[in-house]
Amino acid sequence: MEKNQFQKQQQEPWKVLEFYSGIGGMRYSLMKAGVDAKIVEAFDINDKANDVYEHNFGHRPYQGNIQSLSAADLDSYGAHAWLLSPPCQPYTRQGLQKQSDDPRAFSFLKILELIQHSSRPPIMLFVENVVGFETSDTHSRMIEILAEADFVTQEFILTPLQFGVPYSRPRYFCLAKRKPFSFQNQLFDYKLLWSPNPLFGHADKTVFYEHELFQENLDKLVQSCEPLECFIDTTSVSVDDFGAQEDGKGNGHDISSLEQYFVPLNLIERWGSAMDIVYPDSKRCCCFTKSYYRYVKGTGSLLATVMPEKRGKGSSLKEQGLRYFTPREVANLHSYPEDFHFPPHISLRQRYALLGNSLSIAVVAPLLQYLFVESSL
Known about the structure:
Layout: H1 3-9, E1 14-19, H2 25-32, E2 37-43, H3 47-57, H4 71-75, E3 81-84, H5 106-114, E4 124-130, H6 137-148, E5 151-158, E6 171-178, E7 192-193, H7 210-216, H8 218-223, H9 234-238, H10 265-271, E8 277-278, E9 302-304, E10 322-324, H11 327-333, H12 348-356, H13 361-372
Helix pairs in contact: 2-13
């Protein structure tokens, strides 16, 4: 694609394809980034996720098997950018780590391989996944395909903690632009960075050592975050109009629904030593996974509603009124806007699962803003 064509198209919104669209985190990120863009199509195979997406955006994503899409199909959209958040299970530490041999990785590789067969390949790509993806064979194949298609890449591993959000959720990101188009700061081409500084124009070669600095200054970074009380929805603790009765029963306004968020004493007795307990004034909580609320170990932090005289192992967890973060609060920590809602038929467990598979808008928005900025040749 020639430069003059690129500039002419810039008079209109960017046309964007959103793969693995989930509940709309990427689209919300694009909106928060202030990018003049139009989602020409979204794709997701999850029926419940598509219900949520349609409920909030008025458009239902394409729900077929995206492995059946051809290069001609994607060309027909005339999209300038592809945004992809493929399944993370092939690369998680808890999973089998089959990487490219995992069937859940097949569709992502298929989409990438369509680039070389496309008559109108995208100008830009954005990929989000878990930490660990960057060492996988899928990553190696992705980089190989992008290089063959004449893309330049910049890669990041970032967490909401670096953006003032008290939420530990490090994720891998790949930003790619097809030549002759380039990034604002080409010093970071083909590099993996652990710092958000390039996104804000405050970067030099010291950024290359940010991984070491990040680990050393983690406590300082956490203290710069807002406390969790800024993300706790006090209305949901009294009347929960965002939550749902388990199994979809009830309208969520019955005060008895509050009981479903408190952790049963038998679970505290059995798993208390493995629980991550946080308080309203805490400035960090653990990543919420799709299994949050189904399990208490390793799925996300629990909130103490009764402050103990002394925190730590010496205090009794049974007396702290431990509860799960509500879906609205988890959405807040993912930086979803206030007008984001679930349709009533989505059960409580489904809401947690869908949020656990989502992304951090606070992190993705500035990355997309950086990606879409035009730079001179």
